[in-house]
Amino acid sequence: MRAHREWHETLHRCVPYAFLTPAMLLIGTFVLLPMISALLISFSEYNMIEAPRFVGLEQYRRLVSDPFFWNALLNSLLYLLVVVPILTFAPIFLAVLVNRRLPGIAVFRAIYYLPVVTSLVVTGLMWKWVYEENGVLNFILQKLGILDDPIAWLAVADTSLFAVMAVTVWSGMGFYMVIYLAGLQSIPKSLYESADLAGVSRVRQTVFITIPMLQPYIALVAVISSIAAMKVFEEVFIMTNGGPLSQTETLVFFVYQNAFVEFDMGYASAAGIALFVVTLALSMINLMLSRGSPNTGITMYR
Amino acid sequence: MSLIRIVLRYAVLVIVASVFAGPFLWLLSTALKSGAENIFQYPPALIPREATLDNFKRVFEALPFLSYFLNSALVAALAVSCNLMLCSLAAYPLARMSFAGRQGIFLVLISTLMLPFQLLMIPLYTIAVTLGLNNSFLGLVIPHACTAFGIFLMRQAFMAIPHQLEESAHLEGVTRLQIWWHVLLPLVKPTLATLAVFTFVGVWGDFLWPLIIIDDQTRYTLPLGVNKLAGAFGKDWRLVAAGAVLSIVPMMLVFLFTQRFFISGALRGAVKG
Known about the structure:
The complex is a heterodimer of chains A (302) and B (273). With 302 residues, chain A is an all-alpha fold. Chain A has helices at residues 2-41, 58-64, 67-98, 105-117, 120-131, 136-143, 157-185, 189-197, 202-213, 215-230, 234-239, 251-261, 265-289; strands at 44-45, 53-54. In chain B, 76% of the residues lie in helices and 0% in strands. The model of chain B has no long low-confidence stretch (mean pLDDT 88). By secondary structure, chain B is mostly helical. Chain B has 2 domains: 1-52, no CATH class; 54-272, MetI-like fold (Orthogonal Bundle), CATH 1.10.3720. Chain B contains 13 helices and no strands. The chains are: A mainly alpha (302), B mainly alpha (273).
């Protein structure tokens, strides 16, 4: 009887682990193991054909003296510097714009969100055509009198990176808009009512009520969008393939090129570790700046 | 709001909408234009002179798009069901049981959210090759089969359910597995739906991982198919546009019917975390 109860108890104690086992097995094999192995590969010479050979810090030494690595790192940081502020603040205005009970407003929300659910391959193709020298963008800009002569946006070194950035902004805007919509709906209506009574203009209400009240969400979006900016790949791959003259090579593109075009796995892994370090540093900075703000796991999906 | 205000607001709404919808309309218009129509004409025409479905027919003649679609659908179905099942299983003890190592396991899970997939993909590729999973549907599913994000989301949902609910069930001698299936899962359906749509979007549009893991063209998913189409028939814009339209239509339909879960998903992720 006693033994039976003890047996029962042991079984009972195993229950939580039984629930966790399938998930932990998968995450262990396909996330944790790769993590350790990425670190190990970064200390070796490995081309997928011969067995990996330990080379110590050689790959990192190569990395530091490779102008293409610095170019990619700088491009990614520039990406961050331009894209993150836009993606952090512009969607606030989109959210304010659609946060009204007006007929048809749901349709507008859906349209603004559409790029988020569209595969980046298609997004890249669409924009590649929009950017063509005889494409729609040049036509519109010329019609509006902003441009005299058409520009081959993606082929000119000065504009290519910014053109790619604009696509990242375009495709991410709706996602952050929805986060801000959630934020707007958490602001007490009474604040606006009393501001209305006091005769405060709508613009001032936005600046002095909406934006301060959204602060935790702004911090959240800054985190998510900066991690997303460090991971840009598809836009580059589809629209420019890193060109012209490596102007649009980002860090992830660099990792991909070295790993799956050059099959220089050790070197690519070292660059991957560098990517990880930058991402981690960004997350830390953001975390410090935004203590006590809502945290999220949604990061994974952008 | 005064009438002028309302008109102004709609004007702004429409202008912004044209920025977001414009490229889609242009894509659709190109796909519908017949070979007789110059797509580079000046000024560019958004409305095709003679709309034709010919380009769509040509897509199926050029590449097996139907099988790409079926591959995408299969991979998405597999990934979504795996992710829902495994995440909600793992989230249950993390949310509602006390056991040794709970905090530790949760911390490890959350910290994996910080790891960029682009770092993991190199060893993941070698592991997949070792396991013989390259060029297979299972290989495509791997990165989506069980995500820390999903576990996190489900844990949040389970934590919001009052504890008395399962205590009474527990006293009646019902097993934990039964409680999980019969009591808890029905209560978190909206979160399951949210996780399902997010997983679906992620898998459907996934490009980098399929690009690496699949060589065999019979295993191509739609994004790989569109990329192949653009590579092989790059100059034939009408054809590529038609393929691109075909590849996003299923996603758009899903989005149309599940919109509210996208909105509530962002709410859930952002507010309750």
